[in-house]
């Protein structure tokens, strides 16, 4: 028990007085996950809006597939991205394997279905509410999509935060495509796995504490935005 107590004491000491290596790992984690979240939103939000306003044969099957992709196993995503970026893969000429860019791509592939599916749910409800008004104004499909995204921006921020929370906690995919290389592709989750395997519990706990704080902050932000949205809807 004393060993665990010492490990926690050292971990909190590292959090309060972080080393340059610790700050580098945390900074890279945030940079990779924020970039992946931005990329997934650029793809997922328009896709969700398109599915919200469009009715076509086979739409149900597309929605089932999209919802199924929300549960993609991270190691499978990592393997697919690895194969695509490997020297023999179709994108091997880019030389992106074992770089932060490869990690961004893996996280983006993982969370884009989440962003698209959740934004579709949010925007479809708004579309049902505004459908008659859109028809009376003779808006095109793209104008309707833009109006929905603009009006539902607060709820869509919660979708983006959910995607970021999923990305920053990812370990399997980024380990495969990034390689966990010191000072290059080592992020919080992969560093925690490595330090634990080495028996460096204090360092692993310090990174775990930072990761938990980020996760709690994201969840608090999501809850705050939801409460604000519900309050605005109640007063509308």
Automatic annotation (TrEMBL):
The keyword Membrane is assigned to this record: yes
CDD domains: TM_PBP2
InterPro entries: ABC_perm_TupB-like (IPR049783), MetI-like (IPR000515), MetI-like_sf (IPR035906)
SUPFAM superfamilies, sorted: MetI-like
Domain named ABC transmembrane type-1: residues: 26-222
Gene Ontology BP, a term: transmembrane transport
GO cellular component: plasma membrane
Predominant subcellular localization, coarse grouping: membrane
Compartment list: Cell membrane
Record key words, sorted: Membrane, Transmembrane, Transmembrane helix, Transport
Membrane topology: Multi-pass membrane protein
Pfam families tied to this protein: BPD_transp_1
Membrane-traversing stretches: 32-53, 60-85, 97-118, 155-181, 201-222
Family: Belongs to the binding-protein-dependent transport system permease family.
The protein's name: ABC transporter permease
Native organism: Sagittula salina
